[in-house]
Amino acid sequence: MAVTLADVAARAGVSAATVSRVLSGNYPVAGATRSRVLRAVEELEYVVNGPASALAAARSDLVGVLVHDVADPFFGVLAGAVQGALDPPDGVGGKLAVVCNTGGSPERELNYLTLLQRQRAAAVVLTGGAVADAAHQEALATRVRRLAAAGTRVVLCGRPPLAGEPDGALTLAFDNRGGARRLTEHLLALGHRAIGCVAGPRERTTTRDRLAGHHAALRAAGLPEESGPVVHGGYDRSAGYDGARELLRRAPGLTAVVAGNDTLALGVCAALRDAGLRVPQDVSVAGFDDLPFSQDAAPALTTVRLPLQEAGARAGRLALGAEEPPPGAVATVQAELMVRASTSAPRRTKRPTPTGTARG
Amino acid sequence: MAVTLADVAARAGVSAATVSRVLSGNYPVAGATRSRVLRAVEELEYVVNGPASALAAARSDLVGVLVHDVADPFFGVLAGAVQGALDPPDGVGGKLAVVCNTGGSPERELNYLTLLQRQRAAAVVLTGGAVADAAHQEALATRVRRLAAAGTRVVLCGRPPLAGEPDGALTLAFDNRGGARRLTEHLLALGHRAIGCVAGPRERTTTRDRLAGHHAALRAAGLPEESGPVVHGGYDRSAGYDGARELLRRAPGLTAVVAGNDTLALGVCAALRDAGLRVPQDVSVAGFDDLPFSQDAAPALTTVRLPLQEAGARAGRLALGAEEPPPGAVATVQAELMVRASTSAPRRTKRPTPTGTARG
DNA sequence: CTGTTAGCGCGTTCAT
DNA sequence: ATGAACGCGCTAACAG
Asked: What is the pLDDT of residues B71-94, one digit of tens each?
């Protein structure tokens, strides 16, 4: 049916082995033969059979990229950066990115890992926060071990390392805790004392780490953890909207709201606006991630910047084995506080510490 | 090294063929044998070798998805929807999405198509506007023909059909022209007569179609095409910013600006703000696409909604052959005008038609 | 319903 | 530097 190596070999008057060598390039071949072969390839419009070569060589050109949802800019940027790093800077030799939307579901995550193992993927990049559930973490660690055993490189990007085993898995963790802490410290420095929090899904490591940073800042300032109400929900805009309304109901005296991420923050701003409150005059709002749209929001969002582009690219290079693994197989990506217009000092006309809101 | 079909067969006391049949499921197998096989699979932690089965069956589980840039929400949403449609609703049988960032470059597009042909991809979805260049269109048509000949389904999503050949390629075109026309008509109805345009890259079909719709509306209103200045650039925020400044320089009397897409529109708004102009009081601004962030912009963006989610999902189903192809192999996805807060009637204090700006 | 027999197209020794 | 031969792991006829 399709033209094969043998056809090219016949056309060029050489053996199939020679054609194979010319095409892979990793073997000495006489200049004359080489060009003869290449011409035959052109004339016959020959295209290598990937599956066949993957079978024979026991390795494929596929790299799996697991994300919660590519449509979410956070993951879109990450996935794009990984893909970019996989791309041949010169011409060939590049690997293909298989993007898988897990929706954050542990089952789907596991399922996709199996599918990728089936493809004999060269590497797998797991992005985004994990589910902080022991059973799932265990199942995941097992899968990762198997993949590593099968020769697949595994890179975690934006999540903590797997418990007790850098068995070949490399990790690029994000400093969610530190970033969140600095963010809350910024609000405290502005004078806020009643800070609400619209955190993300309760079970995610990302949520937990950011919340931990927030609480750490409160404690360090001598404030009780309950000094600010916390609501959990999804990581989408509507969760931000609903969360802000809930917060307002529970603690009408809030002067600031920190959101689990920028998308939530946008929802929070919308809810505040609809409630007749101005940002930041009446209530300050802050996000996390510094997604592209954040600086164009009105007011521009104070947030914590994660270098997603750089992190994704690095994850891609690590997946290719094109970059030296970090010492200890784990590197932490720093987060940077970005102060913009959505936060300011609280209005003095409001009572500074509207207590009695905790335990609401 | 790894456990193979034969190992499972031995363990279950059956032939390799039987195991294969159990796993593919498309062949009658006795219940008892089936469960015996499945148990052996479990015990041995057997995972099918994808490349081997792709080779033997002459088809793979891969579907290529070409986008300009997944990090761009437009493409992220599209890619996510395609991937979602590929996903097994029940459990197995799903295909994997290979996402390729072409950056809009014809060469890379062609290159990726070759890579996907090499993988013997089951289907390829080409998204986003094409480059309106005859040579490239020709090269592309050739590649598509080859892919189709090799049994790969080809779906175009968000771009016009390839000239003179539905050789197996299905098209989901977007009504860019109609949407743009209705958008400009909306501005005209509000009373605007001096409408600038920050169009996208000159060579893209998307840009051309939207611009054509804009001009059609102007003509229908009896206005000369030059009644509004047009600047070209990229499709990113900074192009919007720069474009708006250029527009302001060339035609200070503008009362409205239509942007090639929402991202550009955000840049336009920023430039306007920096120039001390209010949106929409001083200048109305409109975008295109209705990306998620558009309704959260301040002011909320008047734009033209493209049902990206639905279109992507449909493209995915067409790629799987799970949906009836549209009659004539081409379907047009309608665009819907979304009037929001960024457009309003022009200020009466400004001269209605500040002519003398054309040919600037 | 199940086993046997052939390849699928390529990489890779091992000779030469 | 090149060719011959084998096998990667699986599916698909074809028997039975």
From this structure: 999 999 999 999 999 986 665 668
Phi–psi pair at B174, nearest 5 degrees: -100, 145
Taking the stretch 105-164 of protein chain B, residues with Cβ within 7 Å of any atom in nucleic acid chain D are none
Pair (A170, A313) in one structural domain: yes
pLDDT at A349 over 90: no
Q: How far apart are CA A61 and CA A360, in angstroms?
A: 55
Which of A286, A302, A318 delimits the end of a domain? A302
Number of domains in chain A: 3
For residue A9, is it within any domain?
yes
Chain B CB contacts of A298 under 8 Å are 297-299
CATH number at residue B27: 1.10.260.40
User: For an interface test with A, which of B92, B96, B105, B266 has the most A Cβ atoms less than 10 Å from its Cβ?
Assistant: B96
A176 touches strand D (CB under 7 A): no
Residue B117 maps to a domain: yes
Q: Tell me phi and psi for residue B268, to 5 degrees.
A: -60, -45
B41-CA/D9-C1' distance, Å: 15
* pLDDT tens track for B230-287: 999 999 999 999 999 999 999 999 999 999 999 999 999 999 999 999 999 999 999 9
Based on the fold, state whether residues A151 and A72 are members of the same structural domain.
yes
Cβ of B52 and A55 within 8 Å? yes
The residue to which tokens 């665009």 are assigned: B335
Asked if residue B168 and residue B63 are part of one domain, the reply reads yes
CB of A60 within 8 Å of a chain B CB? The answer is yes
C-alpha span between A100 and B219 (Å, rounded)? 47
Q: Are residues A315 and A222 in the same domain?
A: no
The residue written with tokens 């609401």 in the block is: A360
**Do residues B143 and B75 both lie within one domain?**
yes
| Cα–Cα nearest to B63, from B117, B105, B103 | B117
Q: Which of residues 56-95 of A touch strand D (CB under 7 A)?
A: 56, 58
Show residues, CB within 7 A, near nucleic chain C: A 1-2, 4-6, 16-17, 20-21, 23-24, 48-49, 52-53, 55-57; B 13-18, 21, 27-30, 32-34, 55-56, 58
Cβ of residue A33 lies below 7 Å from strand D? yes
Q: Are residues A181 and A294 in the same domain?
A: yes
> How remote is the C-alpha of A219 from its chain's centroid?
29
CA A96 vs. chain centroid, Å, equals 18
Q: What H or E segment, with its residue span, contains residue A269?
A: helix A262-274
Question: Per-block average pLDDT, block size 10, for chain B (360 residues)?
Answer: 91 96 90 95 96 94 97 98 86 85 94 96 96 92 92 96 78 98 98 97 97 96 87 96 97 96 97 96 98 90 98 97 94 98 86 37
The boundaries of the domain holding residue B41 are 5-46
The mean pLDDT value for A69-76 works out to: 97
pLDDT at A339: 98
- List the structure tokens of A129: 């926060």
Q: In this structure, is residue B53 part of a structural domain?
A: no
A349 occurs within a structural domain: no
Residues A330, A293, single domain; the answer is: no
Same domain, B67 and B163: yes
Q: Which CATH number covers residue A293?
A: 3.40.50.2300
Burial class (CB in 10 A: 0-12, 13-18, 19+), A249: exposed
CB-count exposure of residue B108 (10 Å: 0-12, 13-18, 19+): middle
B84 touches chain A (CB under 8 A): yes
